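Checklist before submission:
- one chain only
- standard amino acids only
- sequence pasted in full

Submission:
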Amino acid sequence: MAPLDRRALADLVVRFTEAFNDNDLDGVMAYMADDAVYEEFTGTINRGRDAIRAAFVPQFRGDYGKMRFETEDLFVDAESGKALIRWVCSLETKRGRGGWRGLDILHVADGRVKEKLTYAKAKVPLIE
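Returned file contents:
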């Protein structure tokens, strides 16, 4: 498969993020390559679709509250198949509202996310 052009790569990243905001785990997983790698902001590395799905389940189940990602900036390099999306995550829980800033570096090949490297900027990124 030919590499995505700049617009197609940007659109893929936006749709991928929208699947998170729609709380659609199957939708998110549809973008992940079978051999994808997801590195959480904690440094935990999840390899393969099954491990990645398991890592996402608590978030999509609502364990951390209702989460929404608002894009602040998006950079794409179609030639290398890489994108950086900077976001603000808003969080609503029974204990109140919160949020933090972060970013994902995404490596895309054959129209699928091969790597999702997440970085967060917060004292306490999740309420437990």
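Reviewer check: The helical segments are 6-21, 25-31, 49-61.
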